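Incident review: delayed structure delivery

Summary: a single-chain prediction request sat in the queue longer than the usual turnaround. Root cause was a stuck worker, restarted by the on-call engineer. No data loss occurred. The affected request and its eventual output are reproduced below so the record is complete for anyone auditing the incident later.

Affected input:
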Amino acid sequence: MEKSFYFNVLDEIQVEEKNVELLAGNTIDNSYRMITFLQNLLHELRSLSAKKGFASHEEEIYFFKKIKPSILGKLIYYNKVYRIETTCPFHDGKMHNKYFSRQLANLKRDFIEHICNSDFYRYYRSGREDRDSTYFRRGNINYHDGLNSIVFEIDPEFSTFYDYKIARILANELLYSYLLSKINPDEEVDGLLLSSENNKKDISWTDSKNALIELIYALYASGVISHGKIGIRKISLVFQIVFKVPIGDLHHSFHRMKSRSGSRTMFLDYLKISLEEYMDKDL
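Output delivered after worker restart:
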């Protein structure tokens, strides 16, 4: 696998999303364009993996645990947004709100029935890595586990089945934020909806998403916002709105931070040093 393409592919998605935003189209058109882009990207990755393979077991695991689920998750998300928007019978009003509230209820029910109670979901959420070789290397599907029938439809040369399960988790998180914003427009997250409204703001987050997540959790843990009575998800929504950046898997990223080697608060350490250096300039 060509590492230059392999490791930069997620950046390509962000670039395309920003390009789509600049077109100022509607959500249906924008979603369709992203569906086409992501489908082509997956096809290209499938061809490259068949031709080049993976340089090591670690690279294969990283691809099926991180890279492919991120792409497939967004493809599932944009496809669902397209289907929801093209079947919505009303533009606004009570019926509009009722329609999206029903979609949110369906999403929650699907999450409870098919995702949150599984052993794999707990494994993934806890940030564990001890079974990665089983879950994220091809040819290890255990049919004795009574898996979902979709396992028979996947390409065994380009899937471990569990990459699909992570994609579903990521897509559900994006859909949750999208549906909340449709029910409560004041909480709209531009980067997730590809909205043409308010997308020309000059404020943007230019550091890593992990840095932003570290800041969000620090504010949440310290209880300095609304006397600590506001949840972590709502705080993250505020930052996503302000900076136009979809955070994605908030909790899993935090669990990875907890197991960092060296400083677990690299970004907060950097802020402290930067502020002290700035203060010293005035002395």
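Verification: Residues 31 and 199 are 16 Å apart (CA to CA).
Action items: add queue-age alerting; document worker restart procedure.
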